[in-house]
Model the fold of this input.
Amino acid sequence: MCWKKNYVKSMMRPSAAYLSKKKLIYHLSRVEELSHDEIALKLNISKNTVKNHMVEASRFIREYVSKNGSIICFIIASSNYFHSN
Done:
């Protein structure tokens, strides 16, 4: 049983690194407002890789919001209510 846990952990490491890079690229683009060229230079990756990560991240966000939209609206509405009082 122990070898299975180690195997799963080892398989998850690249996935976690991949996802964190996608988050970083999305953050640099949307929050820090860097262009795809600037992100590519900063991270030493191709502009096409940046574009692909942005497409995948945007797709994930759209799917997540479509599945969990009512929860997100409730959280935003609750947050606005408590901050206004």
The chain has a mean pLDDT of 76. The chain has one domain: 2-84. The two ends are 53 Å apart (CA to CA).
